Amino acid sequence: MKLLRSLALFLLPTLFNHAAAAEVIIELPPAQLKGGGALEQALQTRRSVRHYSNAALELAEVAQLAWAAQGITDPQGYRTAPSAGALYPLELYLLAARVTGLEPGLYHYLPAQHALQQISSHNPQTRLAIAGYNQGALRKAAAVFVITGLEQRTARKYGKRAARYVYIEAGHAGQNLLLQANALGLGSVVIGAFNDGAVKAALGLKGGEQPISLLPVGRHEE
Questions:
Q1: What is residue 171's three-state secondary structure?
Q2: Would you say 138 and 188 are in contact if contact means Cβ atoms under 8 Å apart?
Q3: pTM of the prediction?
């Protein structure tokens, strides 16, 4: 009984805030398509960064990172990351802890609108860090991006190979975000060690939507 009560208390903030904040849409600054950094330089200098300062990210930086991972690049709806059959099984979430011009909370990136949908005004950073086995990068980051996948979107065409294609696509999206972070002078790292159920609970994920990777982002520690 105590376990069930604890679980209910753990889930309640996410479920309540999801219903309350689901209709809040934040338009993002347009993505910059002509940056000053060369791709070769970003590839050469990209490293996993797990230690961040307390400084906030700018909303334009968050917008650029989201676009790099899952932004629309073609009138037909094609995105920055390749997708088997253009079925796009990935979803991108943002946990904003310190982002200038953005209320702390949990957001869902809407590629077609290049906008954020507020899911919760409650900041689940501590819960997400616990789900990620208390890794410091999750606790200290100014923002954490979460890539999730819905295998059934790809399975309707590719059957049993769908899982493979979803994970390949998540790798493309994650690398895009990492390279963009590096080009912006930010630090990031891919985290794959976490409790799936706890991450799903923290984000309020439903049905077959599964978390694939966590990408904390922050300014380099001085």
A1: helix
A2: no
A3: 0.88
